[in-house]
Request: fold
Amino acid sequence: FSKDINWEKYKLEAIRRGMLETTNNKYYLENKYFDHFIKKRYNKLKSSDKNITFGESPEYKDFQLFLDVAKELGFKVNVFLVPLQGYWADYTEVSKAEIEKYYEKIREIAKTNNINLIDYSKYSYEPYFFKDITHLGRLGLLKLQEDLLKYNKD
Reply:
C-alpha cells in the first residue's frame, strides 16, 4: 500500500504549506503559535533553558512502565524519538550534551526492551518538521505516517 503513495509529492506540498504558515519568525514555528506563545515573551526566553537537564527524569520510568504494560498485553510497539526543535533549542541555549543524554536514554530504553525505535534526531533542524517547539508539524507528521506504514505492514 505505501509503495503506491507518492511521498515526494506530499513532501513538496508540506513544504509549500509550511512556508506559508511560518512567515513571522526565523525558527520555522507556525505563525499562530509564535504570536500566541512566544512573541510577547521572546526576549525573556533567550537562554531560558541553559540549565535544563535530561539525564534523570521520572518520565523515563513512566515510559518503561508503558513498555512493560504493552509487552504484557502483547502489543507491538514502535517508539519514535522526537528530537528537540534545534533552532529553538539553540535560542534558549539547551546544552547539546544534555540533548544527547535524552537521545541516548531513549535509544537505551528501546534497545533494552527490544522494541523498534524510529529515530528522528537527525531532523532537529529540518524546516517544517515541527509546528511549534515540541510537536511534529507538516513534514514530521508526513514522515511519521510513512514510517508507520513501512514498519507496520505485518
User: Anything to note?
Assistant: DSSP finds seven helices and two strands in the chain.
